[in-house]
Amino acid sequence: DAGVTQSPTHLIKTRGQQVTLRCSPISGHKSVSWYQQVLGQGPQFIFQYYEKEERGRGNFPDRFSARQFPNYSSELNVNALLLGDSALYLCASSLEVLYEQYFGPGTRLTVT
Amino acid sequence: RKEVEQDPGPFNVPEGATVAFNCTYSNSASQSFFWYRQDCRKEPKLLMSVYSSGNEDGRFTAQLNRASQYISLLIRDSKLSDSATYLCVVWVDTGRRALTFGSGTRLQVQP
Question: Across the interface, do A56 and B99 touch by the CB < 8 Å criterion?
């Protein structure tokens, strides 16, 4: 079975631009979570979605938004990009909200 | 105080050594516990869940002490391929409903 997939792999944007990252969960998984990881730190929780509804939100500004589609795939949007948004963005899927999470390879975003 | 704290290391050990990592968490309402492994510039991969009774998977043993809010990971007979960063992860079912990661402990196994 395919694991979690994310696109694009790498992305370079300039300050003020907007970006959309995409994630497809493992087949059968209904929950998708998004994390931001900067160098030297563990992943920081951004959002969790289950059955298209937001189930959790981390301490990120409103510039960050997400949604989940009927096929359980998900998008993360970041508006008005700042240099500090440069990071590895990870998507993780799980069967249900409380189950073990499996990560995709991530999208490396560089903001210049 | 960080919600999940780990010694950042690095731990430099020879092949065949036994190494132990410790982790403490601050929220007593934490419900689930995991160890993830992350190789350089790769995604975290689930190593094992941690149960109250302790659990073992081959050379890896995880322990949980709820009273002390402490989790451990023991790796026996270290291999070169065990070199990675080990992330302690805690689930708290509060409004956030999220995995909370420690910053990770780096292990370097040397020949």
Answer: no
Phi, psi for A84 (deg, rounded to 5): -70, -5
pLDDT tier at B9, thresholds 50, 70, 90: confident
Q: What's the maximum distance between 2 C-alpha atoms anywhere in chain A?
A: 38
Q: Which residues in A lie closer than 8 A to residue B34 (C-beta atoms)?
A: 100
Distances (CA, A) of B111 to B19, B60, B80: 15, 20, 7
> pLDDT, tens digit, for every residue of B25-38?
998 888 889 999 99
Structure tokens at B78: 């270290």
Using CA atoms, how far residue A11 sits from A14, A19, B85, in Å, is: 10, 9, 25
- Nearest residue in chain A measured CA to CA from B97: A56
C-alpha gyration radius of chain B: 14
Q: Chain B residues with CB inside 8 Å of A33's CB?
A: 98-99
Q: Please check the confidence at residue B96 and state whether its pLDDT lies above 70.
A: no
Q: What are phi and psi of B81, to 5 degrees?
A: -70, -10
Closest by Cα among B92, B94, B90 to B103:
B90
Q: Report how far residue A65's alpha carbon sits from residue A83's, in angstroms, rounded to the nearest whole number.
A: 18
Q: Which of B43, B45, B87 sits opposite A106 (nearest CB)?
A: B43
Do residue B87 and residue A42 have CB atoms under 8 angstroms apart?
yes
Whether the predicted pLDDT of B65 surpasses 70: yes
